[in-house]
Write a structure and sequence with these properties.
The protein is 62% helix and 17% strand. The chain is α+β, with helices and mostly antiparallel strands and 101 residues long. A hairpin with a 2-residue loop joins strand 1 and strand 2 (61-66). The longest helix is centred in the first third of the chain and has 21 residues, at 4-24.
């Protein structure tokens, strides 16, 4: 049976292989988009996540459908901060704008 340290060493090559596979099939962008959508709640916090009805990306724009007017205004006022967080976490040029619906 492999020890914990051996498993840790195996993780890096597996992650590398996964990244190479994404590159080979040109799926890096789609993977990052899906990761962002999946992690939206973690990125913005529980209060905003609880009032988010849907999140999707189209033409490098992140669309967020919210159920609360005050939360919508809060996001619009902090749009540049949110876009900066997205860029730091998911890389440049994934989304260029944030649209609240």
């Amino acid at each position: 049976m492999a020890s914990f340290s051996e498993r840790k060493k195996e993780a890096a090559p597996l992650e590398e292989a996964f990244q190479e596979l994404l590159k080979a099939y040109r799926l890096e962008g789609k993977y990052r988009e899906k990761s962002l959508i999946h992690e939206w709640g973690e990125l913005v916090g529980k209060t905003i996540a609880d009032r988010t009805q849907s999140v999707f990306i189209k033409d490098k724009k992140l669309f967020v459908k919210l159920t609360s007017g005050p939360i919508k205004r809060e996001i619009q006022m902090n749009k540049s901060k949110i876009l900066q967080l997205i860029e730091e976490r998911f890389g440049k040029d994934l989304v260029l704008d944030l649209v609240c619906l």
